[in-house]
Amino acid sequence: MNDRWRYLLERLIQAAVCVWGVSVIIFCITHFIGDPVQLLMPAEASQADRLAYQQALGLDKSAFERYIIFFANVLQGDLGQSYRFNTPVLALIWDKFPATFELAVAAIVFAIIVGVGSGILCAIRPNTWWDHCFEWLSLSGMAAPTFWVGIMLIMFFSVELRWLPTSGRSGLASLVLPAITLGWYSTAVISRMTRSTLLETLETDFIKTSVLKGAPSHIIIFKHCLKFMLPTLLTIISLQFVTLLAGAVITETIFSWPGIGRLLIQSAYGGDYPVVQGITVVCSIIFVLIQLAVDVVQFFLDPRIGHRQ
Amino acid sequence: MTLLNLRSANLKIQITLFVLIVFVILGLFGAWLAPYDPTQQDLSQALAPPFWHAGGTTAHLLGTAPLGQDILSGIMVGAQVSLLVSLCAVALSGLFGVFIGLVAGYRGGWVDTVCMRVADIQLSIPFILLAIVMIGAMGPKLSNVIFVIAVTNWVTYAKVVRTETMRLRERDFVKSARVSATPTGLILLRHILPNVINSIVVIATLDIGKVIIFESGLSFLGLSVQPPTPSWGAMLADGRKYISIAYWPSMFPGIAIFVVVLCFNFLGNFLRTIWDPQSKH
Amino acid sequence: MQTLLSVANLQTHFETPQGVVQAVNDVSFQLKKGEILGIVGESGSGKSVMAQSLMRVVPESNLSKISGEVYFNGIDLMTLSPKQMQNVRGSSIAMVTQNPSTSLNPVFTVQDQLLETLKFHPQQKFKNPKERMLQLMTEVQLPSPELIAKRYPFQLSGGMKQRISIAMALMCEPELLIADEPTTALDVTIQAQILELIKNIRNTHGTSIIFITHDLGVVAQLCDTVGVMYAGQLVEYNTVEEIFKHPRHPYTQALLASNPVFGKKQTSLKAMKGQPPQLTQLGAGCAFADRCEQALPLCHHTKTDLIRLENHYHHRCSIPTLSGLPSL
């Protein structure tokens, strides 16, 4: 058992290293590629303010010391001040986060239900007309840019059919189109991967054993195959979820969804760099934590992980 | 593949290659082939519908944009940005990624660990966030966009090449080259690289489509080339405000992106099936 | 002794781009209760496909066809619906396959997989499923059954996994056990133990066994009757004594001649010339004709006769007099 806990510890350390690495990268971008004073201060700031900020940032000090200041701030939750709203960045993010989270969860639920469902359907009856149909749909799904899909959906369902609202966050109906737009690409990926993984699993010797034992088809697929596929599926789904959080930027812009993505774009347009930087740091850390959580779940699902053979 | 599949596969590939050749021609010569200058505004013709609708003329086959610019010309000239960014970014990220992958895979040890840690850290930052942060710091220019995409995209190449290199390193022909004191660079170039090149080309082909979508996403958000240079993403953004009255400014550039990316994906999958005999499904 | 299994004219064909593969070509035999039948043949002779055809686990599609009659306890298995056949598998007829390392599901414990078999066949009422499981695990000579039951397959050795596969097959007291090369992937010492185990199963439970192997030595130790397969056909089928003392088919004779005999000094082994034929290119004549030392020109284009002996035993040859016994 010691072996396995050691693996978990290694993963934790890896995650911590990732978080640290993210901070280094963001720091370098702000401080070496851009001019931090110009980026992190509003355009109208006075010369005196700039000098004061320069001192606060410790720009006279070495890069290493500046980094320590930056990192210490991040750890304490001080991501700077937004100068559009004159509030701490972290507070802003905290305020907008639930909307994005809601959208992302709706999108991934859609993607899982439709993706895994269609993948299973196609795998148990391969090369039928609907298998080919789904294949085309998936390929199209992966080629269509999110913003185009969103606009087309609005045009069709909101403008032409008037079934759903065009924008804003106002109840369940307004969640439908954004969730589908955001989840479209992931649905296609999950569908293809489920199909191919299930087809491979059905060829294995142990599934043949299940057949020889007289197991009914639904048990073979939903118990024997699915439990075996779960780690793979979980990895794919978590990767997609993480992509979703990023894709939310475009979807929220199109649907005027009041989440972090929209905040990010507005801040980028408005030159509010502290917010841009803050969101990036927070999202990256969330990414790392989600990956870690998924690894922990995998660890408990698959008895082979972490064992030194 | 049964005979039926083979014939329809052939047709698919022919259409795909045709579309991609048209794309490349437009990317290179679009500015001369386009019927109008896409930045030329003609307010009297603002939002004219495509020629098959009432009120449309054959002068503007696909209709006009909010300020009267010809959409067909916009699509033809906009191909340039997409082609340029995708080819340059994929080439740069591919070169860098392959190099890192070869070195990390061949050397192993701490070199490998460091490279992979850096890759993981980079993957932790969502591309679009990294792009916005970098463009925010550097300013929205074509060269910056290429740089940003190249810098964030190398990881896939590195990982695949590294795995392949580690596998090939143990093969006899590589071992015999090492024993005969062949310099490392030559081993990598002559023995290992030719064996990984197939995988690299497949990934690169699929990547081009991905990068075209990235770039058009960035220009949709206004973070790529600035007007008046036309780009497909920006055209979509322009047309967005008018979707309740005019679908064509948003729909046609989107179709262009969709078709081109779909073809690159087909090509990539096709190459994968002919080069990797193990992929049955 | 009652007849448990009666196979008549079993044929399994596959359509491939290269042509029709006659994997199992007109195979007929019988099996009594408590009898151990050995099926011998090289790789590609069709032995595994035949076993799969009996269990009807050959992938059924437009490209594969199984025909013939397989009477098990008086019922033709070929006429059963998929659901009915599913009930038969694992309860009345069970099978153990070749690869112990990949035959068990890696994400379920040994216990889960063993007890599952009982759940699929609720008609077998065992009062205490767990008791039964432990009892069978002891019978297949697994050490510390309670500990092993909680383990995952990857934590066990090849020999242990194969024993578990055997225990799993026996969970519902099957009347027929098909063992498809169960010892091929194991060490010789473990092989001996497994063979002993199988013999005990027949002796204790009266289970009929079809034992598929390429090893003549195993057949000599274990089996009551033997069927020799070549290119999809049963070229000889007789009791084990007759096969070894009076082999009638030239292939059987060649097989026996090419095996080293313990204690006999031989300067060289008598190898069979040639290669087994491509199953898509079988002509009208005898499939063994190209390699047969006693072949006559007519063997290459005359269909082989079925030369019947007593008790459904038979062999195939285009030259009836070769066997020394006239056809009945």
Key descriptive features of the protein:
heterotrimer; B: about 280 residues; about 75% helix; about 0% strand; C: about 325 residues; alpha/beta; eight-stranded mixed sheet; about 25% strand; globular; disordered C terminus
Could you characterize what this model shows?
The complex is a heterotrimer of chains A (309), B (281) and C (328). Chain A is built from twelve helices and no strands. Chain A has helices at 2-33, 36-40, 47-57, 63-76, 89-124, 129-143, 146-160, 172-202, 205-212, 217-255, 260-269, 273-301. Chain A is flat and about 80 Å long. Chain A starts with a helix and ends in an 8-residue tail after the last helix. Chain B starts with a helix and ends in a 6-residue tail after the last helix. Chain B has helices at residues 3-33, 71-107, 109-124, 127-138, 142-169, 172-179, 184-220, 232-240, 248-275. The mean pLDDT of chain B is 83. Chain C is α/β, with parallel strands linked by helices and 328 residues long. Chain C is globular. Residues 324-328 of chain C have low confidence and may be disordered. The chains are: A mainly alpha (309), B mainly alpha (281), C alpha/beta (328).
Q: Termini distance of chain C?
A: 24 Å
Shape of chain C: globular
What is the CATH topology descriptor of the domain at 86-281 in chain B? MetI-like fold
Low-confidence spans of chain B: none
| Overall strand count of chain B | 0
Order of helices and strands of chain C: EEEHEEHEHHHHHEHEHEEHHEE
Radius of gyration of chain C: 21 Å
Share in helix of chain C:
25-40%
Q: Kindly name the structural category of chain C.
A: alpha/beta
Query: Largest interface: which pair?
Result: A-B, 56 and 45 residues
Number of strands of chain C: 12
Number of continuous helical runs of chain C: 11
End-to-end span of chain B in angstroms? 10 Å
* Rg of chain B, Cα atoms, Å: 22 Å
Helix content of chain B: over 70%
Average of per-residue pLDDT values of chain C: 86
| Overall pLDDT metric of chain B | 83
H/E element sequence of chain B:
HHHHHHHHH
Q: Return the structural class of chain B.
A: mainly alpha
